[in-house]
Specification:
This protein is α+β, with helices and mostly antiparallel strands. The protein folds into two domains: about 1-35; about 40-155, Immunoglobulin-like. Helices cover about 30% and strands about 35% of the residues. The protein contains three helices and nine strands, in the order αββββαβββαββ. Strands 3, 4, 6, 8 and 9 form a five-stranded antiparallel sheet that branches. A four-stranded antiparallel sheet has the order 1-2-7-5, covered by helices on one side. The longest helix is centred in the first third of the chain and has 34 residues, at about 5-35. It is rod-shaped and about 95 Å long.
Length: about 160
């Protein structure tokens, strides 16, 4: 092999190495970008927040918007349906008072930093509304399935046990 062949082989090896490094770097940047906008929904039961509001709250503490892909409601361990107005009206028909609610629909975006009550009473009183606190802490479960706009993560948020 003469000098030109060695130079050609060396140039090809350097080019292939550069291509490999570029591919690895591009993959790392894509992974970083996906994680840098990943949402993280947390749910919590709030008692007497602010004035006298008590309820079940969802917060997006992640770095990007959460795309809602579905919800599941159970009452006393029995599946009821999705968290929408119809399910709420069915459940609330048996309650002593009608709390306010916020429905979640498939395909809506829950913005980064957003904080929203899914169900709440504005004028909560321990004596009059003990049934409501028991409901949101032990009986009612709303599970939210979501993902980032990149998709495919199949993330889930549910109320913590109390």
């Amino acid at each position: 092999m003469d000098g030109n062949g060695i130079i050609s082989l060396s140039a090809t090896a350097v080019a292939m190495g550069s291509l490999g490094v570029s591919w690895i770097q591009a993959r790392t940047v894509r992974t970083h970008n996906r994680k840098s906008v990943r949402p993280h929904l947390q749910m919590r039961q709030v008692k007497n927040y602010g004035d006298r509001t008590t309820g079940l709250q969802v917060i997006n503490v992640g770095l990007g918007p959460a795309l809602i892909t579905g919800t599941t409601v159970t009452l006393d361990g029995r599946p009821i349906g999705q968290w929408n107005k119809g399910t709420y009206e069915t459940l609330a028909a048996d309650w002593p008072a009608a709390p306010s609610m916020y429905a979640l629909f498939d395909g809506i975006a829950f913005p980064q930093g957003a904080c929203q009550y899914l169900i709440h009473l504005d004028e909560y009183d321990d004596a009059a509304h003990a049934w409501f606190w028991e409901l949101i802490c032990r009986r009612l479960s709303i599970v939210i399935n979501y993902e980032s706009f990149y998709g495919g993560e199949n993330l889930r948020a549910s109320p913590p046990p109390i």
